[in-house]
Design goal:
Elements lengths: L4 H29 L5 H29 L4 H17 L6 H4 L6 H19 L10 H25 L13 H31 L4 H29 L4 H22 L2 H25 L1
Helix pairs in contact: 2-8, 2-10, 5-6, 7-8, 7-9, 7-10, 8-10, 9-10
């Protein structure tokens, strides 16, 4: 049972490794298992399932925290992880197409170091107890992050099977999809993390009220992901991606305005609007690349 902050960080690190392995292989497995003309709908199903679980978790987590037994949040995931492990044995075997390919361990280590340093720089604490560490955060840490990034780029140019094959970025459709994914996940994750904080500390409301931002947006995404993916399968409409991206962008602007006005109802309404477009965008963008 987790009883202190250090143990919580360590356990969350292991959880992050598992989540990275799943998310990193998810699209590759889906692409191999599903025919191209059905991938939009399949992608929609995956996003719908993800949104459903996120919706349930966002609804249950505040109740667990309020009860004083917040450790239950982690125990709830255990049966799901066991079920996924058993079901995962039926997934397609990828050894026939990757046999003999070396693992880019040096690139993987450098990528972890680079992203860790960058994350610390962007999110380091500003408290009296961490004041002595500010020179590292603002100078030494930046140098380490830049060194790790440069080293990663140099290694990836030299290894036989790189972790990141730069040649793919020469493909306009693929590079555009990667760019959209980068922007949308960076902004959406920031909004999902900071939105509840704004409601609790800015509006002075409860943690349950804060979690409703995630509940409404995930519920909306669950409604539109499969529809968006299926529509793309049937029409191949190129306009779906820019339209949904514009919808998400307009939602972020609306979120900012609602926050400035201090309107909780406005924040929830715009969050639902963002989720509707987000479901379509993720399904179409990951199918079209």
């Amino acid at each position: 049972v987790v009883t202190d902050f250090t143990t919580l960080v360590i356990v969350r690190a292991f959880q992050g490794v598992g989540a990275a392995l799943v998310s990193g292989n998810n699209l590759a497995i889906l692409t191999r298992a599903v025919a191209p003309e059905r991938r939009g709908g399949a992608m929609g199903i995956v996003i719908t399932g993800t949104s459903l679980v996120s919706l349930v978790a966002a609804a249950l987590a505040p109740a667990m925290v309020a009860s004083g037994y917040w450790q239950l949040i982690f125990f709830v995931s255990a049966p799901l992880a066991l079920w996924a492990t058993i079901r995962g044995r039926r997934l397609p075997d990828g050894r026939t197409i990757t046999a003999g390919a070396p693992v880019d361990w040096s690139g993987a280590v450098l990528l972890v170091l680079a992203t860790t340093f960058v994350a610390i720089l962007l999110n380091h604490p500003h408290t009296p107890s961490t004041e002595p560490l500010m020179p590292f955060f603002h100078a030494g840490g930046s140098a380490l992050a830049l060194t790790a990034v440069v080293a990663f780029l140099l290694v990836e140019r030299r290894v036989a099977v790189p972790l990141l094959d730069w040649r793919w970025l020469r493909e306009p459709v693929f590079s555009a999809a990667v760019g959209v994914n980068f922007l949308i996940h960076m902004t959406m994750m920031a909004t999902m993390f900071l939105g509840p904080v704004m409601v609790v500390h800015g509006f002075g409301m409860s943690s349950t009220a804060g979690s409703m931002i995630m509940v409404t947006s995930q519920a909306a995404a669950m409604l539109t992901a499969f529809l968006g993916g299926s529509l793309y399968d049937r029409t191949g409409a190129a306009w779906l991606r820019p339209l949904s991206f514009a919808g998400v962008g307009a939602s972020f602007l609306g979120w900012a305005l609602a926050g400035l006005e201090g309107s909780y109802a406005g924040v929830l309404a715009v969050g639902m609007f963002a989720g509707l477009w987000m479901g379509v965008l993720i399904a179409v963008n990951n199918t079209g690349n």
